[in-house]
Amino acid sequence: MDQTLETVKFYYDFKSPFSYLAFEPALALERTHRVRLRFVPHVFDFTAYGGTLADRDERSWRKVRYLYLDARRFANERGLVIKGPQRLFDSRLALISGLFADREGRFREYAGRVWELFFKRELDIERIDELAPLLAAHGMDPEAFRRYAESEGPRDLAAALEEAERDQVFGVPTFIVAGEPFWGNDRVEWVAKKLDAMSLRRAEAAASRNPENR
Q1: Residue 2's Cα: distance from chain center in Å?
Q2: Range name among 37-46, 58-67, 69-78, 168-177 with the lowest pLDDT average
Q3: What pTM does this model have?
Q4: Which one of 17, 67, 102, 205 has the largest count of C-beta atoms within 10 Å of its C-beta?
Q5: Based on the structure, what is the number of domains in the chain?
Q6: Residue 53 lies in a domain
Q7: Among residues of the chain, what percentage have pLDDT more than 90?
Q8: Model pLDDT for residues 89-111, shown as the tens digit of each residue
Q9: 206 part of a folded domain
């Protein structure tokens, strides 16, 4: 059997609660299917939610409040904590730290902790003095990150944003599977069905789904 791994892109933003909600289910795809996730940072557009805090009208605030209500519903089912941020954050520095962690082979454990702390309101993702120690706690060199953030990091992030434009990404989380987009944390099931249709389910995972094999 061909054991070649299909690459699935996962576009994310650290300030997106729905990216956080999609993260663990996305990781599970690597266990159930012959895929490798590729994590691509993307800065979602505030204008989709009425712009800045000062610009939002009541209709936009209703939308934002409802989205966080849904996020907490999903989170409560899994024992996660999602508190709405008390201001609009610029996540670019944090996304650069994600690129750095990915380059160091530590993205999965680092990203999960960033989301956890951010949505508990225990991490300011705009402050390098908070991100650097978190990188160090996951075995990475904080000084190397500081240098990366001042040199290649912004260029790498710009390249990721250009890639998102080519993939026609308009929000996060977005999965790209064989060129087909899936937007939203609740689309992971559809991603799995797409992978099944591509005959990418791992044999052991397929066997566990079949009652006759139990």
Answers
A1: 29
A2: 58-67
A3: 0.90
A4: 17
A5: 1
A6: yes
A7: 79
A8: 999 999 999 999 999 999 999 99
A9: yes
Instruction: In whole angstroms, give the CA distance from residue 174 to residue 51.
Output: 21
Q: Residue 52 has which token pair?
A: 């800045």
Token pair, residue 176, equals: 């790209």
| CATH number of the CATH domain containing 115 | 3.40.30.10
Q: Is 1 part of any domain?
A: no
Take residue 212 and report the two structure tokens written for it.
């006759």
In DSSP notation, the chain reads ---PPEEEEEEE-TT-HHHHHHHHHHHHHHHHBSEEEEEEE----GGGGTSSTTT--HHHHHHHHHHHHHHHHHHHHHT------SS----HHHHHHHHHHHHTT-HHHHHHHHHHHHHTT---TT-HHHHHHHHHHTT--HHHHHHHHHTHHHHHHHHHHHHHHHTT--SSSEEEETTEEEESGGGHHHHHHHHHHTT-B-HHHHHHH-GGG-
- Residue range of the domain that includes 95: 6-213
Tell whether 17 is covered by a domain. yes
Distance CA 129, CA 1 (A): 48
Residues 6+ apart with CB under 8 A from 151: none
